[in-house]
Amino acid sequence: MDKTVDISGAPTRAFQYLLSSSFVFAVLFVGAFALWKGLLALGITVPRANGTVWPVVFAVLWAALTVKWVRYLRTADGEWWGPVPRDQYLGRFAGYGGLARHSWERSIERLYDDGDDRD
Known about the structure:
The protein contains three helices and no strands.
């Protein structure tokens, strides 16, 4: 018997944040290291503060950029049926949900047609 695990909702969002967080951490860490090496090569000294100034700045940037990146990805994950022509729902995209999409749009058109006839 096949078993499936539903990861929609909170688990998906948590996975997105973890994956995005690791990506943002890597980019920030490599970028900060490259900036530090570049400034040292130019002879510019980076002030070293006593305490936790730079780790706090890094952590705040990390959290802010992670949230920004996840929100960007969630808005970019839009309707992928938009560029698909309607006549291809039953053709090449039938196996990818085109049959369901075709019947869904047809039933909505019928719903609007039925509503217009009653008025």
